[in-house]
Amino acid sequence: MVIYPIPAEVIQARVQLVVDQAAKASPNTIAQDLQAVDRAKSAAIEATLANLDTNEPPLVDVKV
User: Fold this and answer.
1) pTM score of the predicted model
2) Which of 2, 5, 34, 40 could cysteine-pair with 13, CB 3.0–4.6 Å?
3) Sign of CA dihedral 25, 43, 11, 38
4) What is the pLDDT of residues 24-55, one digit of tens each?
């Protein structure tokens, strides 16, 4: 099983969401927290793809 590290920004956004949910914050605040989690995930994926080395050989060799 491969375990991928979770960026700190995503963890921080998730923690803020849980804190606001526990405090029974307004639905608008919860929605903003959900958007923050989604933006943090998207930014992490984009950063990972930007740093991807395309010169590496593929891990799977597909022959048709």
Assistant:
1) 0.72
2) 40
3) positive
4) 999 999 999 999 999 999 999 898 888 877 77
